[in-house]
Amino acid sequence: MKALLSRAGLLCEFPPAVTLVEVGARDGLQNESAVTSAAKIALIDQLSASGLTYIEAGAFVSPKWVPQMADSHEVFSGIQRAPTVTYSALVPNLRGLEQAIACQADEIAIFTSASQGFCQHNINCSIEQSLQRFEPVVSQAQQLGLKVRGYLSCVADCPYDGPTPPEQVASVAEALRDLGCYQISLGDTIGTGTPLRIARMLEAVRKQVQAKQLAVHFHDTWGMALANLYQSLSMGITTIDCSVAGLGGCPYAPGAAGNVATEDVLYLCQGLGIHTGVDLQQVAKAGWAISHILGRRPISKVSLALYSKLTQKKT
Amino acid sequence: MKALLSRAGLLCEFPPAVTLVEVGARDGLQNESAVTSAAKIALIDQLSASGLTYIEAGAFVSPKWVPQMADSHEVFSGIQRAPTVTYSALVPNLRGLEQAIACQADEIAIFTSASQGFCQHNINCSIEQSLQRFEPVVSQAQQLGLKVRGYLSCVADCPYDGPTPPEQVASVAEALRDLGCYQISLGDTIGTGTPLRIARMLEAVRKQVQAKQLAVHFHDTWGMALANLYQSLSMGITTIDCSVAGLGGCPYAPGAAGNVATEDVLYLCQGLGIHTGVDLQQVAKAGWAISHILGRRPISKVSLALYSKLTQKKT
Question: Which residues fall in a coiled-coil region (chains A, B) (predicted)?
Fold first, then answer.
């Protein structure tokens, strides 16, 4: 354990290793302009070679609502499966689960919100109804031996309801766990959370769900993602959602943009002596390629700094 | 004091209030394309109205080396002095001090480096020589009742020498204090520092210089500024250098760019319940105005998020 001397000489501890959940190819690209299946496949294959062990590769949702994910079948069929990598798919219902199974997804992910307002706007039902809807999905997935991950959005603030009480986050996280999710990803969907509020939220959630069953999913819309991550790491969180080149955001939350970039997370972990097993340079290269296709710069300061170093050396 | 429950249930404390040192008009603009004196004056006047109490307004350095600061005399003469604000000037030598006095600067700032390599490249002498050169400047300033602030660069890494040993930072910080500086601003000039290394550096420096005599000056080139600031706040640092709209960088350090944005610092402090006395909206407005003049977007996620909220409400 890395030890850090704090102000009063107290010791804060960081985990020796963390797992990164790469969501760029799904949560990222579903909120960008559409790219070809070939581009997605190339991105995922590059990410697979970087040392990442968990890649969300697609979503089996209505192409009417999320046209960017309409080719998830092609993507799952086209990628080269690395034996060290878990390839997961987001599914909204039984139909999506069937498609995920047909594509041999290794795991599935379901989603709800910690706030009623967001749940209503996002999936058109109450939190309770969303949990009921996912019950048969989880149960059938489990019968087939598929592990289920749960996304919980708006764990700090909701664009419709304002601040989300930490106890409410804890209670929905517990419900997802009881439903059968082996891991709950706590999402600061609009990125307004600051470290003290994130700490209080995690403190409340940890009373119901063990830290090892939790992941954090930060958005950098207000620049707080790494400070929030730093706080979370000191509280025993060992799974981090992140998105290569900072791809994506949330289409349903006004003003929301910017999953925290995988490159930035890697640089922070590296600096804290926390093992990730992931090659930063390779992830950065994958990010430059997809950013080039999207016609814009990566939304990652580490990626830009690495690129600038590289081009300076060449000249 | 705000208390934060850490992993092991230990308490980390944050200061109830901090002072922001706004360096955008000097450290920022000296590294941007030149703007008119009128634009600088308007920027400083807007910042003065925001509640900021310390504004670095110019530098009396060679116009051959830093042409962007050649009009510091006009700027000091043109601004409306708010009685609550300290207006300081950077000076490299006795000639600069005379000019600062002629312009009625409230304080002066001098500068050296914690690394020999950077000192040589930046001011063409060793650290020891730089301290000797500044001795008559500090002594004459003190005779006139002018307080002197000291900048110390490369406190984490040096682009020429690599990592800077924390003890070396501590030793030069102590020398600056002994020279007569009432405050030492610790600069992560190339922005490569991560929280654990910043903590170790601060730990070493605090053994020689009291925390209340220290300021932190972070660059966000590698996205670490706010995580580093969060760590520093937990270690008793109460003065923070920052730059409206993230103006500027360092012209002497290859690849270096991006003083941490004042807006981002304010949002973090606000979220931690730390008093700043500064109006975030007014700083953001000042940042939008100068960014418009520079023809680019603010380098501040908080500023961009605020702007996006504002324009969404209007439509």
Answer: none
